[in-house]
Q: What sequence folds into this?
């Protein structure tokens, strides 16, 4: 990291101001070449702002402010200059071109945050929290990521990491005195400590699905045979006309996807095409997409036309439950307004989408489930990478446990626990590979 | 302006950082209520940056930097705090909600720049330069606006304004000594000064059309009878397949509009529907749009199918020239590849769009005209408002000139010149009305 990188740090587009960031050993030198103000940027204090012009030789580009952060007191841990210019794409591109001409290199995706990690300003869980915050679709998710960024997860992990190393040393201590045939700590106590560690890993890992809901929203798919009233229900839940409703089966060719917010949690409701055999190629594409949508759903509402029969969609419900085991599937009886009052009572979820009957009850039902599903995330949003590492650590600890139970050599137990500790170290990035970093930063955009 | 306003100052969307601005007497107090850092924001120096957290009671929202600008050394001339948070829409909305809860008001469109004007930090020509820079589509236009923002236009206008007041005092001086029957300055000299002033106004005002080209791009419309090859030419100029080309007349139902850049000037090329009588309603809508497009064109190329006859489109050219007097209209002979070589020579603009023959010559021709059309803009992009005021001032000065020539009373001449000076004052906003301001700031977005 001997070079100095630059990129637009704010979202692209038109606005009052845009901020262009420079980071690296030559940040102030490069900025000073194109900045003309009352003072040179070479000799200013950290965390100060200076007013001036960006000029290309004699050509005025813009009037700006330049904020200077000297290492290590900056986001990246390097010298950083942030140029606030007027918020137009052509102003930004002129200034960035000028900075590149003056010796800076265009930053790669996630380039600034990667330097923050490599300089020890953020660990990997914090890096991932930054990405989650920026792309957050729900306020609880955003707030959980903020806590993760502030280091709550880091400190929980490092505390746990210390406990594992503690067990290692206990086991190794016993090893040192093995010749003396004294059992310094009993195996039962070690076993208990390992059990606790396994529980910790499994519990955290299993909050991954809840975290996905906070990260991307709670997904509710509406499925059912043609003309069950799926699009009408979709509109009723959204409280407005979004889907084109018609009497002709197969009107919904594509799937429709809209987000509503219940208690600040994003609930993505998807209206799928009618599930049936079809030869119409557009409709087949729609069906294929419907399948991928249902696959990602947390809840699938199988809508049944009760006027045909309350049991008409039972086999569909069964096949959907079998095909999508990750989702909670519910049968919803629709068109109950067409039944006699005395016939309505038996079905737990009964509505009339068209007459807007019991739609609020259904919305409450969805809300309750969405809330319950996210309750487990306290101060960390476990992602796929972290869950995989936690599962691996749990397996390694279970291996250690097995060795304890089999009364195997302490060296082996200690080695297995140390492996688990190393696996956990990968979560925060204590140990990392270029491949892991590339994978993480590929999610970032340029300028982050 | 006793209240404190807040808004997102950077473009909306996802990015590394977003900047939320507070401006007004309570900026630091309000920011300090939600900001927890090592220092209170109440007692910091101007142009300093402070690291900390935004918290809602005990709830952590984000880790941010807060930049403090104390009045009058800020964009608006008031106390300003700029909070740089992570660049996610939900983070931004949480912080803005919190600031509003703590006493700030959401800024109106252009709210910050309006305060900058009212506090004398920017005049109206500079305000308009800010808007032009942000929305600029060409680098020369962007750079001209930057010069206008830096005050070049302001100083030219105020110099000119002073000259007018100078003439006034000369005329009034003569007035004071009128009884003594001495002609202190001859009327011829005053007349010359007024003539110079009129020229200044007319010259500036007439650069309005060139300014529009730098501001929005040079517009080239392609017109012609069906099957003349308009869409093929459009694609050839763009160097790629954009329009759907077919042998069936009337394929282009809507108009297509693409921008190419020649010497950093945006050239908007528009392919219009075939001009002919039609009963197809979609095509009629297309024709109507084509008319509005041609109306805004700087250049109209009337494409003729030379294989029918080189004179086949002459009457069309004539009627287009008559209908759109603001545009330069040229007949372009197409399909010359189908003529014998000896028949090709006579027509100045001859191409084969399909065979890509002489397309670069046509592109050069357009480029030359676009360049010439924008040469007159040096350090100001005159807009409609300014052109109208300059025209009005020219008329008022012509009235004064007429009074001089008619040897009318000096009081009348002086009054008319003073009126012109006042009209010019409206350009920079020396004199302004709420209506004028509202009109200007309605072009701005919130956060500017």
A:
């Amino acid at each position: 990291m001997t070079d100095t990188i630059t990129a637009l740090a704010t979202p692209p587009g038109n606005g009052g101001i845009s901020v262009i960031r420079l980071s690296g050993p030559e940040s102030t030198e490069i900025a000073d070449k194109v900045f003309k103000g009352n003072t040179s940027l070479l000799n200013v204090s950290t965390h100060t702002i200076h007013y001036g012009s960006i000029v290309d030789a004699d050509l005025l580009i813009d009037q700006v402010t330049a904020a200077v952060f000297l290492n290590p007191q900056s986001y990246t841990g390097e010298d950083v200059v942030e140029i606030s210019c007027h918020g137009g794409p052509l102003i930004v591109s002129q200034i960035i071109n000028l900075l590149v001409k003056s010796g800076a290199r265009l930053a790669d995706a996630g380039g600034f945050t990667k330097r923050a990690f490599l300089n020890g300003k953020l660990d990997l869980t914090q890096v991932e929290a930054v990405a989650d915050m920026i792309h957050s679709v729900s306020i609880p998710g955003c707030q959980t990521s903020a806590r993760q960024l502030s280091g709550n997860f880091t400190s929980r992990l490092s505390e746990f990491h210390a406990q594992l190393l503690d067990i290692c040393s206990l086991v190794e201590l016993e090893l040192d005195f093995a010749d003396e045939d004294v059992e310094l700590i009993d195996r039962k106590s070690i076993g208990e400590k390992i059990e606790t560690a396994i529980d910790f890993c499994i519990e955290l890992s299993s909050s991954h699905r809840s975290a996905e809901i906070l990260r991307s929203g709670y997904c509710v798919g509406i499925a059912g045979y043609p003309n069950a009233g799926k699009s009408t229900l979709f509109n009723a839940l959204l409280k407005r006309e979004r889907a084109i409703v018609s009497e002709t089966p197969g009107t919904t060719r594509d799937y429709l996807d809209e987000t509503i917010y219940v208690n600040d949690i994003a609930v993505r409701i998807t209206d799928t095409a009618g599930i049936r055999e079809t030869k119409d190629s557009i409709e087949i594409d729609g069906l294929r997409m419907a399948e991928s949508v249902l696959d990602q759903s947390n809840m699938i509402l199988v809508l049944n036309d009760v006027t045909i029969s309350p049991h008409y969609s039972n086999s569909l419900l069964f096949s959907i439950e079998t095909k999508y085991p990750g989702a909670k599937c519910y049968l919803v009886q629709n068109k109950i307004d067409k039944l006699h009052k005395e016939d309505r009572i038996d079905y737990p979820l009964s509505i009339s989408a068209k007459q807007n009957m019991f739609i609020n009850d259904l919305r409450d039902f969805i809300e309750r489930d969405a809330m319950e599903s996210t309750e487990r995330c306290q101060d960390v949003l476990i992602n796929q990478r972290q869950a995989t590492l936690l599962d691996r650590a749990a397996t390694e600890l279970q291996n250690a446990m097995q060795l304890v139970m089999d009364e195997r050599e302490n060296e082996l137990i200690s080695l297995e626990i140390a492996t688990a500790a190393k696996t956990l170290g990968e979560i925060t990035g204590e140990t990392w590979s270029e491949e892991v970093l590339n994978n993480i930063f590929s999610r970032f955009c340029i300028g982050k």
Summary: Residues 213-373 of chain A form a domain with the Rossmann fold fold (CATH 3.40.50.300). Chain A touches chain B through 55 residues (CB under 8 Å). Residues 302 and 331 of chain A are 5 Å apart (CA to CA).
